Amino acid sequence: MALPWALAVLSLLPLLDAHSLACPNFSVPITNASLDQISGKWFFIADASRLLEYKMEVNESHAFFLYLTPNHTEDRIQLREYMTFEDQCMYNSTNLRVHRENATLTKHENGAQYFGHLLLLKDPKTFMLATFPEDKQELGLSFFADKPEVTPEQMGEFYDYLTCMGMDKSDVLYPNQKKNMCQQLEKQHEEERRKEKEKS
User: Fold this and answer.
1) Alpha-carbon distance 138 to 175, whole Å?
2) Distance between terminal CA atoms of the chain?
3) Based on C-alpha coordinates, what's the Rg of the chain?
4) Which residues, if any, are the signal sequence (predicted)?
5) On the CB side of 85, how many CA atoms lie within 13 Å of its CA?
């Protein structure tokens, strides 16, 4: 009797191993290398959230991309966000606080503080931010890539993490980068930044 049971357990090990590999590790500290990896321009590819207010905001956003500029010594990241709502471009610039030990980034907005757990993926051209991973009623997962379109493999890793966190593909919202109305403003800002660098 022991042999069939042992064989059954052994046959499940690959599944258990695959499942554990797909689960996000929230305990990996943020290092300078982590910050360098997320530096630059990123496109908001997909989001799944159980927080109704946030879902509504993402649903109304047609396109969304951002720039991250880390400061290692101050443990801060300059965040520049470009969001398209209907046919209007909205821009916001703020700073994120880096909490290296618990791998979180915090943002202050309208008197409130928002936490995001940074998750670096196997593919360095992508990363994720998880919100409220300990709260099944409010948890969320956002997926970013360095290009507006991703490969099936990149998307698959996002879906694996999503499943492991107890969410479903039906929870996912996908901004439409083709409706981006912020190209002109982005170009203007890049020109201004170039001129500033030339002066200094």
Assistant:
1) 20
2) 78
3) 19
4) 1-18
5) 8
Inter-residue contact 76 to 98 (CB < 8 Å) = yes
- The answer to pTM > 0.85 is no
Place of tokens 């709260």: 135
The dihedral region occupied by 103, where left means phi > 0, alpha psi between -120 and 50, and beta the remainder, is: left
Report which of 53, 45, 16, 50 is spatially closest to residue 164, judged by C-alpha positions: 16
Which residue type sits at 29?
P
Contact 63, 72 (CB under 8 A): no
What average pLDDT values come out for the chain (200 residues) when binned by 10 residues? 37 37 78 96 92 63 90 96 91 96 89 88 94 81 95 95 89 88 95 88
Cβ atoms of 107 and 86 within 8 Å: the answer is no
Alpha-helical runs (H) found in the chain:
2-22, 32-37, 52-60, 152-164, 183-199
Rounded CA-CA distance 182/64 in Å is 9
Question: Which of 69, 70, 38, 72 is closest to 142 using CA atoms?
Answer: 38
In total, the chain counts a number of residues equal to 200
